[in-house]
UniProtKB/TrEMBL annotation:
Biological source species: Penicillium canariense
Name of this protein: Uncharacterized protein
Source superkingdom: Eukaryota
Amino acid sequence: MARLKNLGVTTTGVNPPPTCLLCEMEIPYVHDSGIAGCPTWDRTPESDQLLKCQWRGYWRSRLKHVMVPSIQIEEACFGDMPRLWSCFCRAIIKESDTKYHLTGINMLQERSSEPYHLPKDPTIARIGGRKNARYDNATFIEFYAAKMKRQPSQYKGQRLGFIIHAHCWILFGRALGAMPTEIKLAKFIQSSRNHWRKENLHGLTDHNINWVKPNQALSEREHSCDIYQNPLVIPALQEVITRANTGHSIFPCFSKLPIDITVLISEWVCPADYTLDDVANMRNMLFTFQWNLPDWFWRRRLQEDLFFELDILRKSSSPVNWQGLRLDLMSLVSDRTWYTTRGLANRERILRNVAAIGRGAGMS
């Protein structure tokens, strides 16, 4: 049983479940069936094998802790275990009322009384290591999970950390057009606390995760979408973005038609409240007529704020097939089964919190 330093009192049952400040999800553990496929209280061989394959250049059997650059975790697609991202998190450590610092990345171990450990260096991520390896104070920082409301008296004088998914942290910066190093941590924490005191940070879970395989869609859900799907790295969306970079020029076959006529026809083919079939019909028509529709036509049909990737494309010097890209994005959005189970709906859910917290921090 752990004892808090300098107080001589136990913390049993006090350390709250780690909950992400941005997505409101209770950080899952690797032993959950839908995360890594093997319900055991130790790290699963399946997840270890996946991580070893992706980072074989770093993995050594004798290493106490296997460390990789944090950016590699943030940009990773975890293949047959797409929900594994949700186990990786950072923390913003409180040193005083005005001073905070960001940690590196680790997968937290389940513990209701023991402190958590994360790398001190924010550019480092721990992805594995020897079982029961000790965390040294030179490389790792020890802390207890902070609550949004008043901390329990047992925490007085202890180091506290506000936990955030590694991927949600990057999503926050990209959605608001800020580099992670540009985010003022004190303002971020103050805004987060104000937001969650009003909204109540619940610690979302979905017990249906225990009845599916890691790469199986969550057909029955407790929430509007699969909250365990990666909101940052969405493979199908990345494929669409890559395909758009093969831009091409458009030579209208019916260039003499007034723009209001082409728009009128296009609105009839693909109304603002469109279906997947409408998008397919629109694609066929534009392929045949090669019309170049105005941007406002597409913005009425596509919530472009959902796709921070578009800002990256706009800043690039490469040609972009914007109409083809928007049609592809509309296809993804209108496929409701895919949308709710493959990360994009989860991104939309999280971005509502991002916008509110960003406003409070003076970032939007």
